[in-house]
Amino acid sequence: MRNPQVSTFSLNNPWTMLRKGFKSFSWRIGLASIAASSSLLASPLFAQVADAPPDTVADIPVNYTEALVGSYTLPDPLTMEDGRPVQTREMWWSQRRPELVRLFEEYQYGRSPGRPNDMVFHVFESAGSAFGGRAIRRQVTLYFNRDRTGPDLDLLIYLPARATGPVPIFLNVSFSPNSNAVADSAIRPSEVWDRETRKRVPARPGRGFGRIDVLPFLEAGIGVATVYYADLDPDFPGGATLGIRGVYMDEGQEEPAPDEWGAIAAWSWGLRRVMDYFETDPDIDHERVALFGASRVGKTVLWTAAKDPRFALVIASASGEGGAALSRRNYGETVAHLTAPSRYRYQFAGNYAKYADRVNELPVDAHLLLALIAPRPVLLQTGTEDRWSDPKGEFLAALAAEPVFEMLGAKGLDTTTIPPPGQPILNTLGFLIHEGGHGPAPADWPIFLEFVKKHFFASDSSPNEGAASQ
């Protein structure tokens, strides 16, 4: 059992007080569903407000009451496991950051392999005309061996037709297969997983869940790419042998080892292989690739950016527990809910479930995940009614990650107050909350684009520094 160095996250927390300049900790969030007539106001002492009746998920009670959140401690992002303080940037890059990547691999997402030696990028459409000539459509299949057998990944790309050089890319990680993710009839028909037969079947034509409008990005000089998150690994229990993880298993093995990759790490592995392709495409500025995902793929894009510094920017929508929300904060979904056998245990390393009933002993938490992305831009987006994902917990995690961003010369939230809905913080460490529930709202997309433009076009300097396993 590891005994990580921790610091109490409260008004008496010395490292937080020091780095925040002894500011008053005051939190405010407008949650329309908390009460019929008003929003929750939390004082510096986290006012105890009963905001919803208790409920259960997977026979586990769910807390929506601030009075029952309880006290907790957070590991200091700038303190090594052995208690040594991280006092320089060099020490962060060479010692603390690799240590945190290892801890997340071992205890939350699982270890994954590197790039296969014999990948094949099959560009089966290189310059298709799309959207009345405003875009160039490119379609690519990524194979992970020379024989082109086993799981593969389809990548759909749109580039601005008038571009005169490599362009930044907004990479959308979609719940829909490519043929349903964009309103374009020329996309090659896709396949999806059938949970009943546990096989890949043709995707039904029609409107996809989370369809993306690529034109605003193209008009801003930014390309758009999209991938179907489950191309490589299915999103259901017992699917580890059916996707890319099965390729790396020993004969007769049915599940990864407790510290090996869950489904989220498998999806993340696929995104890193997409980046491998981007590095070969002369029309793509691979040093300016933004990642976007919501809910479980919001968790996926955060882990991808944390592990692989080649991704320059990340926007995570409603990533919640297992993503940007603090696990130690008992509010909404918890590690116990997430890793219950009937729910999403398969998405994580087996070791993660061992902390369901002792989350305060977990060596990692969401603020450390966000710290791993520093000093690259990260925007957390959530909704006032999405109590299950704990918007306040996401804001607190961002605040606790601030010291790392600031040490590395980036701008943190610069406030201890959650902004009102629709008034985003677009610093290097950003936050956006809308009136509503889980996932992005239509009004969020112009803000996503603004965030990307602000950080991709503000300077010519690259945010990527240091190294991590890919």
Which class best fits the helix and strand makeup? alpha/beta
Q: Calculate the mean pLDDT score and round it.
A: 88
Low-confidence stretches: 1-50, 460-468
Number of strands: 17
Q: What's the alpha carbon Rg, rounded to whole Å?
A: 21 Å
Q: Largest beta sheet, briefly? A: 9 strands, mixed
Global outline: globular
Assembly type of the shown chains?
single chain
Summed up, the helix count is 11
What does this structure look like?
This protein has 470 residues and is an alpha/beta fold. The protein contains eleven helices and 17 strands. It has helices at 14-19, 89-109, 178-181, 215-219, 244-247, 263-278, 296-307, 335-338, 366-371, 391-407, 444-456; strands spanning 7-8, 27-29, 40-42, 55-57, 60-62, 73-74, 120-130, 135-143, 152-160, 167-174, 191-194, 199-202, 223-228, 284-294, 313-317, 378-383, 429-434. A nine-stranded mixed β-sheet has the order 7-8-9-13-10-14-15-16-17, sandwiched between helices. Strand 8 and strand 9 form a beta hairpin. The longest helix is centred in the first third of the chain and has 21 residues, at 89-109. It is globular. Residues 1-50 and 460-468 have low confidence and may be disordered.
